[in-house]
Amino acid sequence: MRPTTLAIAIVLAVRVLPVAGAEPLAEALHRLQARYEATRTMTADFRQVVESPALAGGIESAGTLAFEKPNRMRWDYKPPDPQLVVGDGETLWIYQPDDHQVIKAPLTEAFRANTPVTFLAGLGRLERDFAASLEEDRPERWVLRLVPHRDKGLGSLVLVVRKTDATLEEARITDPLGTTTRLLLANERRNVPLAIQQTLREVGQRFDFRNTPTEVRREDHTLHLRSADEFKLRALNELLQEKLARRQVPLRALQAGPIEPGPAGTAKQQIVLQQGIPVEKAREIVKLVKETKLKVQVAIQADQVRVTGKKRDDLQAVIRLLREQDLGIALQFTNFRD
Predict the structure, then answer these.
(1) SS in 3 state form for 55-81?
(2) Most exposed among 94, 117, 182, 250, judged by the fewest C-beta atoms under 10 Å?
(3) At what angle do helices 192-205 and 230-246 cross, to 10 degrees?
(4) Least reliable range by pLDDT among 77-91, 121-135, 306-320
């Protein structure tokens, strides 16, 4: 059983209070709280690395997660070590297909009290259980450390928070034996179902959509739009984008397909929520980075582009370069190793 599989999913439900002390620390905690209190649902890709003094090398795994308040989650681990973890708010289910077994436990008993995991699971409270400190104040990120008040031997938790929008990019949990589990999040999508609900609610109240076969459906990472004709479909698309933008879903992450004829004379369209970097864009990014002549290495890894270098200044220069480019897609930058 992977304890950190359960850890990050419920961080969105945690109430994080500003801690007296340095202003950057109070600001970081306050903004993290504000962002995740406004989050009702979330999907993301994750990458997990476990490193231990007893292991010759790190153990890596990856997959996707989905979260919905309160305390509902789903973690899908990809092969070669597939695993499915589902929480319905009360019960935790862990399906391990290679072992042909299912583990079931009450969610509240799945964690020990007052550990870093209980904080991330929403079962503990920061102000009661942890002392928070600002480990680093980087130009673009805060690094926060949480240590249990009651028993510092239980371990510690480090959160890497992006300053621009208070997104949680990474969590590192270290246990008393020195085993560190790092969880990195990418392609985060918040509140998409809520934006769809708000769109359909407004459609039901608007005269121009009255008595029309207008709908928005979501299947995995694809949105299916349909309405009476092309004009109404375009109006539906604009309304949906407005609701998504208000919920801080980047519009550059929407890849709209062509408008096509639908059943019974209607018009339909598919919109794909970008997951990772398309291969053509990845090649374009590699070319841009190589043209800088910076002392960095760049490589395409699945649906990501990984840039490595010895100097942080070089890596930050690459980030600035890519942010200045009009690549037509939403980019997220994750610091995998510092």
Answers:
(1) CCCCEEEEEEEEEECCCEEEEEECCCC
(2) 250
(3) 130
(4) 121-135
Report pLDDT digits (tens) over 22-52. Answer: 488 888 877 776 776 677 777 888 888 888 8
Residue 56: burial class (beta carbons within 10 Å; 0-12, 13-18, 19+): exposed
Q: What residues contact residue 178 under an 8 Å CB cut-off, 6+ apart?
A: 52, 53
Number of domains in the chain: 3
Residues 111 and 212 in one domain: no
Is it the case that residue 72 has pLDDT exceeding 90? no
Domain limit, last residue, from 159, 190, 221: 190
Residue 302, sorted as left (phi over 0), alpha (psi -120 to 50) or beta, turns out to be left
How many Cα neighbours within 13 Å face the side chain of 251? 10
Asked whether residue 92 is domain-assigned, the answer is no
Strands 101-106, 91-96: pairing kind: antiparallel
What is the C-alpha separation between 93 and 87, in angstroms, rounded?
Answer: 6
Instruction: Please report, for the domain that includes residue 120, its CATH number.
Output: 2.50.20.10
Query: Domain check: are 152 and 255 in the same one?
Result: no
Q: Which amino acid is at 293?
A: K
List beta partners, residue 172: 158, 182
